[in-house]
Amino acid sequence: MTETSCCGEYEWCCEAGQFFVLRHTEGVGYEETGRGHRAAARLVWAALVGTHRHKERAS
Length: 59
Known about the structure:
Layout: E1 2-4, E2 10-15, E3 18-25, E4 29-36, H1 38-51
Antiparallel strand pairs: 1-2, 2-3, 3-4
């Protein structure tokens, strides 16, 4: 299960029953934030995507 923000800045993921959000960090790749039960991680996802501004990223 995955979901992606409009420009790929954030990824909503599930692995082995754990839910988490990946955030793209320039020059590093992705870093994880918000791991835990679905409800808690989904709150992190909603907060990040709710305040997110579309960013153009170099491919």
